[in-house]
Amino acid sequence: MIEQPDRARFRSDTVVFLVCLLLASGMLFVPPVRTAGLASAIRNSVLVPLVWMQETAVEGKTSRSRLALIQAQRDSIALLAQGLPALRDENDQLRRLLGLGQRLPLEFVPAEVLHQALPTDGLTLLLSAGGADGVALFHPVVAPEGLLGVISSVDRQTSVATTWAHPEFRASAYTDGGGVFGIVAPSAPASGTEPLLELRGVPYRDTIPAGTLVLTSGLGGVYPKGIPVGRVVSVIRELTGWERTYLVRPAANPAHAAHALILLGPAERSLEGAFPDEEH
Predict the structure, then answer these.
(1) Among 45, 106, 113, 181, whose Cα sits 20 to 30 Å from the Cα of 156?
(2) What's the structural domain count of the chain?
(3) Is 260 within a domain?
(4) What range defines the domain where residue 29 resides?
């Protein structure tokens, strides 16, 4: 059974409506001075809870907006802080690269490392300088620490460098001060270890102490004399009475290189003294 509307409630609502309508109509003829006072009295009595609720809602909305802004600023600062070490390292490398360029006695082209297949893959580097900048095949590529590799492919705007970690890399080298010569080649790394080099073909009668600096010898017409290659770690193989092979820790890591210099030559110029000895 459908409940019928309460007639008494309907009549009371009608009466309230008519009273409000009469009051509103009457207020149209009240002088402005009295309406202002009446409005003030209503605001300070009947409307006080409503005004308080409105102010609370506005404050809550403002607080939420400020909280969101503070959280966004905090996240931005945290993101910036995470990138500071990498930015600091890159700036340090650029400063050292600029200093190296000022000491080099031959022409060079600065280049940015554009791509590596993986962060730990340093077999080849894609560089931002190419044939239009004077880059050609077999131009050496160096970092502030020492030798990175050699140009193996050239386009007009870019070039590819084969680094010392590549299995086909070879360079004639000698030891600083001792004058012991040999051939530098990549060493077969054990699983999970850092890539290293080998100094091969060292005469058996010559002994190289650990920590000795190994530099390019200038023989072969590709790498100028005096580019740091790395430092001797220890003997890894020896053929009694004939030769020894030494393990060498590289001076420059291609996987960490963000910028480099491409040496344009001539390869006959010696670079001894251009690279500071950071071990001392």
Answers:
(1) 106
(2) 2
(3) yes
(4) 10-46
